[in-house]
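Case study 2.
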Amino acid sequence: MLLSEAPGQRLRMGELADRLVFSPSRLTYQITTMQKRGLVAKEACPADRRGSEAVLTAAGLLALREAAPHHLRSARTHLIDDLDDAEIACLTRVFERLGRRLRADRTASSTPADTQGAH
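Prediction:
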C-alpha cells in the first residue's frame, strides 16, 4: 500500500523500512519474496546508484486493488464492527503512541553511537 501511494510507486528501501518499522534485513526478505511473485521490482535509485528502491509493478498494483475490498471487509468483520466509538478512539490513541515509540526506537538504533574519549 505504501508503494502504491508513493510518487512513481517507488520508495528507497531505507525509507520503506522506516515507514513499516521493519529492520533492513526483514524488509529485504519481504521485498525478495514479493519480487519472486512479480509484485515489486528492486531498482537502483536514479539519483544515487548506491541505493536501491522498491518499485510496485503493474501486477502488484492489480493484486493490491483486488485484495483491498476483501481485506477491508475482513478487518471490519473481525475487529471494527464489534467496537464502539470510545473503544475505537482508545485503540487509535494506543496504536498512535506505539507507532511513535517504534519509530523513535528504530531511529535511535540506526543512529551511530557517539564517539567517546576523543581528545
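The longest helix spans residues 85-110.
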